[in-house]
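Researcher: Can you fold this with arginine in place?
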Amino acid sequence: MPPQSNSASADASSSASQPNTWSQRFESALHPAIARFNASIAFDIELIEYDITGSQAHAKMLAHTGIISETEAEQLVVGLEQIRQEYRSGQLQPTVDDEDVHFAVEHRLTEILGDVGKKLHTARSRNDQVGTDIRLYLRDQINDIRQRLRQFQTVLLDLADAHVETLIPGYTHLQRAQPVSLAHHLLAYFEMAQRDCDRLSDGLKRVNQSPLGAGALAGTTFPIDRHYTAELLGFEGVYRNSLDAVSDRDFAVEFLAAASLILIHLSRLSEELIIWASEEFRFIRLKDTCSTGSSIMPQKKNPDIPELVRGKTGRVFGNLQAMLVILKGIPLAYNKDLQEDKEGLFDTVKTVQGCLEAMTILLAEGLEFQPQRLAEAVAEDFSNATDVADYLAAKGVPFREAYNLVGKVVRTSLAQNKLLKDLTLEEWQALHPQFEADIYAAIEPRQVVAARNSFGGTGFDRVRQALEVARQGLET
Ligand code: ARG
């Protein structure tokens, strides 16, 4: 709901402005263009429910400490709840004259309750208020994103389960290196998502600290109880220093950095899917529900979804950079620069949520691996060359010597347009007397993968174990 630039006469939410919101110190209202420039209501309306919840806790604390009466607190809580319902039903339409969400709520509350509404802001400032709102908002969003990461991980696990024995070329430098189990490849992304979850959980500890009661910057003359509001709002603790409380946005930087890493991971996966869907690879086929066509080239089927995810990393990195720059030069305590913390944060939250959802759907039902094509791919190259060297090394030939010898074999085979499996036993034995008939089994792709059973490796037994561990981790 975009706030209107000038309030209709029926809209009394700005009636508290006489001539504007400020005290009698001001003689005239803000220049309209300046009012628009200054206002954050267009975007901080996103925080309204958190603002209401925070204000309800504050009102209860004011009564708990005897600063206002129980009846007054009750009226404030009920009035605030009414505003919540008005907002949800679309009745509440704040305007630029309200400036920001905090004033919008307070103005409306005063309309509903009269003088009692004016008591809400006792022992509080918008500075500790906005800090409280953002933390409550971010706490919810982090929990939501963690859920989405869980769903993404679940889909990765299901896919991995189905593809333990599907082989795919493994690459370094985007050159065929050694074949791996497709499940192993997918589980690598599971691990990244796990770190993403852990990082968010760790950051949550610092999001979940209450700045409420820090006042404008120095605390308050009233006998407030900050622990009481913190507990009501589910905060784990309270900021110890009021100046730090109102000016700290480290937790937002941490979140934006964690979000950037989520996008890095999704973007790397996207890049692989795009490559795999290309005519040159054909490792996957995109389904119609998750791909798009071209307006001019009838044969095209484009991987728009992973491309968009890859593209959206730009704005997420940008929002992190913006927050770092916003913070770097501001002296203690609150400065209006901090109002700029919100749009990028909201944008990143929505972008991460959208990307996770899209990638989860894409993996769950938007693509099909092409087993035939993958089987051909792992059979038609020299990605078993290390295994020939390992074969000799296991028989006591020093690895470097074996490595050099196999390099020579690869060179001559390439010249003769042959693969390693095409060499006759006589040819093998002419190269080294240690070669025996079991060399063929040893370089067969399935065996090449199965044999890499070191911890963390792609051997099928290891992958099955890893799947089991991952599944258990998800369930806890
Ligand atoms: N809209 C402001 C913000 O988002 C609220 C705090 C304003 N505080 C102040 N002292 N001007 O940061």
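Model: Folded with arginine in place. The longest helix spans residues 126-162.
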